[in-house]
Automatic annotation (TrEMBL):
<keyword id="KW-0645">Protease</keyword>
<dbReference type="InterPro" id="IPR022684">
    <property type="entry name" value="Calpain_cysteine_protease"/>
</dbReference>
<dbReference type="Pfam" id="PF00168">
    <property type="entry name" value="C2"/>
</dbReference>
<dbReference type="InterPro" id="IPR035892">
    <property type="entry name" value="C2_domain_sf"/>
</dbReference>
<feature type="active site">
    <location>
        <position position="94"/>
    </location>
</feature>
<dbReference type="InterPro" id="IPR000008">
    <property type="entry name" value="C2_dom"/>
</dbReference>
<dbReference type="GO" id="GO:0006508">
    <property type="term" value="P:proteolysis"/>
</dbReference>
<dbReference type="InterPro" id="IPR022682">
    <property type="entry name" value="Calpain_domain_III"/>
</dbReference>
<dbReference type="InterPro" id="IPR022683">
    <property type="entry name" value="Calpain_III"/>
</dbReference>
<dbReference type="InterPro" id="IPR036213">
    <property type="entry name" value="Calpain_III_sf"/>
</dbReference>
<comment type="similarity">
    <text>Belongs to the peptidase C2 family.</text>
</comment>
<feature type="active site">
    <location>
        <position position="163"/>
    </location>
</feature>
<dbReference type="InterPro" id="IPR038765">
    <property type="entry name" value="Papain-like_cys_pep_sf"/>
</dbReference>
<feature type="domain" description="Calpain catalytic">
    <location>
        <begin position="1"/>
        <end position="222"/>
    </location>
</feature>
<feature type="domain" description="C2">
    <location>
        <begin position="374"/>
        <end position="492"/>
    </location>
</feature>
<dbReference type="GO" id="GO:0005737">
    <property type="term" value="C:cytoplasm"/>
</dbReference>
<dbReference type="GO" id="GO:0004198">
    <property type="term" value="F:calcium-dependent cysteine-type endopeptidase activity"/>
</dbReference>
Length: 514
């Protein structure tokens, strides 16, 4: 794989984990993850790491040799400093295996009010009993380990690491022989494997961990077995290539368009469509081939990333303009990048594996994992080759966005729309509301004429009885190479006004414009 042993020196932790396991590798930059709200992001990162560890992921943490970590800057200028031991006992540029991620229960009996005595003052002790009780209550809630349900002290987030050298352990709070362990019962110490041996394995409080460690590499092996009782994921694997095919930049057969910064060519990248029928997780792992696999010389990787966008509910051809983003991975000059989308709303999506710059060429593998079947497939065709009846060339395109309906009634409805033109018929999702129901759902139509008529029906989705027709209307979408908003007046079958429907129409005479 690497040609010679010399090429094994250095490299990325995530690559090593992927080589020995065949799993899906991901690297998390701690400082970058914590940028958007340190407290909330720290809690999310801990839970993500705990979930991955509970699912038997391989996890390794490291302190970068040039390090900016929350409130300190540590740099390594020489080779000797790369594996320098810090005052806290940790080693820079060193990989630590994560061997446990868990909450540690604290013993309320041995950990009493003594940790809050500094909060008391002479003036406080002279206050009436009621006021004293109130201030005591406030001071308790200031304690980060306090839980009003579980008692004064509940639990602390902890992580256990192992130094492969078997020595030089963490010597800060919660190290092997620190006084903090007096807050934990003997039975818990036994279950946690607390020893004072210099065995290279030690516990750290989570806040100290994210203060010092800069990078976390995970390698997850998603359960795809149909015979397993544990949580199962659906896996799809695609092999593709970023290639220009010898064509000019932006040509239809150019599949190396670069990242979203290059808007003119971005959609020339390979495209993979998938459908999300119910909200859930979708994970995408992009791996590029080693430039000189099996050769002694190692060349740098191409910078790669993944972009996912939400598209029209009925799209079956390639997209030609970037649409609403659903998620973007970090771009990295690495073998693999990973994108984890959580609580993805129902709808249709397109994933684009890309290089950072246009016209960079490489071979890749794309793996997609999901909780539910999403039926991904590669998109190759740019537009239908013929019209509806197979005798006329498609020469225009229309996008209809059903935005919202504004009703005059106050009764709650479970509304949906049916949109039809010729033989094409589509339906929005059912959404409950009273005076207003918003969809913001888009639909795409190719056609071979300069104008097209649409019929639109608004229905109330009745779960136990037949659906009720609220209104029926129609409109025309001429090819005017423009995007415009349309307000349709709605009436019932007796001609009585029931409200208004808001649409956005985009029509162009180039079937590959949208």
């Amino acid at each position: 794989l690497y040609g010679c042993y010399e090429n094994l020196v250095g490299g990325h932790l995530s690559d090593a984990l992927q080589d020995v396991s065949g799993g899906v590798a991901e690297t998390v930059n701690v400082a970058k993850f914590l940028l958007n709200g340190a407290a909330a992001s720290s809690h999310l990162l801990f839970n993500n790491l705990k979930e991955a560890f509970d699912n038997e992921a391989l996890i390794v943490a490291a302190i970068a040799v040039v390090l900016f970590a929350v409130d300190r800057f540590i740099s390594a200028k020489t080779k000797d400093e790369i594996e320098q031991t810090l005052d806290c006992g940790l080693v820079k540029g060193h990989a630590y295996a994560v061997t446990a991620v868990r909450y540690v229960e604290l013993d309320a009996k041995t950990n009493s009010f003594r940790f809050h005595l500094p909060c008391f003052s002479v003036q406080l002790l002279k206050t009436p009993l009621v006021s004293l009780s109130l201030q005591l209550h406030v001071n308790l809630f200031r304690n980060p380990h306090f839980s009003p349900l579980l008692g004064q002290h509940a639990r602390i987030r902890m992580i256990r690491l192992q130094n492969p050298w078997g020595e030089k352990e963490w010597n800060g709070p919660w190290s092997d022989n620190s006084k903090e362990w007096e807050q934990v019962t003997e039975s818990q110490k036994t279950s946690l494997g607390i020893t004072v041996d210099e065995d290279g394995e030690f516990w750290m409080p989570w806040n100290s961990f994210i203060r010092y460690f800069t990078d976390i590499s995970l390698c997850q092996m998603f359960n795809t077995s149909i015979f397993s009782r544990s949580k199962r994921y659906h896996e799809e694997i695609f092999y593709g290539e970023w290639t220009t095919n010898g064509a000019k930049s932006g040509a239809p057969n150019d599949f190396a368009g670069g990242c979203l910064n290059f808007s003119a060519t971005f959609c020339n990248n390979p495209q993979y469509l998938f459908n999300v029928s119910e909200p859930g997780e979708v994970m995408l792992a992009l791996t590029q081939k080693e430039p000189n696999e099996g050769v002694k010389r190692r060349d740098p990787y191409v910078t790669i990333g993944i972009h996912v966008m939400k598209v029209e509910e009925n799209r079956v051809h390639r997209v030609h303009q970037a649409m609403a983003p659903a998620g973007t991975s970090d771009y990295a000059s690495a073998r693999s990048v990973f994108l984890h989308l959580r609580d993805v709303p129902a709808g249709r999506y397109i994933a684009l594996p890309t290089t950072f710059a246009p016209r960079e060429q490489s071979v890749f593998m794309l793996r997609i994992y999901s909780e539910h079947k999403i039926y991904p497939r590669v998109l190759l065709k740019h537009a239908p080759s013929k019209g509806i009846f197979g005798c006329r060339q498609v020469n225009s395109i229309t996008r209809v966005t059903i935005v919202a309906v504004f009703l005059e009634q106050t009764k709650e409805v479970n509304a949906y729309c049916i949109l039809q033109t010729g033989k094409d018929k589509v339906r929005t999702s059912s959404i409950k509301g009273r005076n207003q129901v918003s969809w913001n759902e888009q639909f795409i139509f190719h056609r071979a004429s300069t104008s097209r008529d649409f019929s639109l029906e608004l229905w109330d989705d009745c779960l136990l009885t037949r659906d009720k027709l609220i209104s029926r209307t129609s409109f025309t979408a001429p090819v005017d190479n423009d995007t415009r908003e349309v307000q349709l007046k709605l009436t019932d079958t007796y001609g009585k006004s029931v409200g208004n429907l808001r649409l956005i129409l985009a029509t162009f005479d180039d079937p590959m414009y949208l």
